[in-house]
Amino acid sequence: MRKFIRSICTTLSNFSVFQRCSRSKKNIPVGGIYNENTMESLVSAPSKIPWYLRIFIKIADKKAKKKMIMGRILTWSPKISISSALLEVYVEKGSALCLETRMLTLLRIIISYTIPSPFALDINSYKYKKYNISDEEVEGLRGIRDIESIMSFTEKEKVALKYAYALSKTPIVLTQKQLNDLRRLFSEKEIVAIAALSAKVNYWARLFEALRIKPAGYIDDPILHLKEYCTLIK
Questions:
Q1: Is the pLDDT of residue 19 over 60?
Q2: Domains parsed from the chain with CATH numbers
Q3: Is 200 within 8 Å of 106 (Cβ atoms)?
Q4: Of 14, 66, 73, 234, which is least packed with CB atoms within 10 Å of its CB?
Q5: Nearest to 97 by CA among 207, 197, 21
């Protein structure tokens, strides 16, 4: 199935109609004033979305059980749209093969807080209690408690979380101890998965904020303090 989807995407990227759709519209300034309170995003989705992209959007909406605004906006550039979808699918599937679901969830949440991105927090913390993530652990992920002081985190979780946190800061600063601890506790495949997942979540979180995508309403838990992480200075 994966090979089938990949072959479709490769064919589409070389398809003449695909090429024309990417270049046909002139680059005309959007104009107007952005209003965070009344607009759902910085730019609107195209009024006409190519049929081959509508298929992927429909699949994404069904999986997310929400109308995915970002997926529609990215169709302004079909190549960016498809490459972003492939990044999401393959990094998630690859990471899930060697990392536990709880670990994946913890990594997504701490990165979403570090950027920060309310939308990323909203979607990445969905059903977080299912993975036995406590209120104390959430405080650690938020950075208001030292991760090392939280006894419920395993040693591997602490090392992975601090690594993902460092990768999400600007500039990136890593210590020799962090790298040694990674090699001591994780396999090559696991380190690659943690690094790739961290980069992928960073990509989406920063893109959500760049295009001003609002939280989709997956979760409304006061413990998460989503509203405190707005990145717009008015």
A1: no
A2: 2-20+44-95 (no CATH), 99-229 (1.20.1290.10)
A3: no
A4: 234
A5: 197
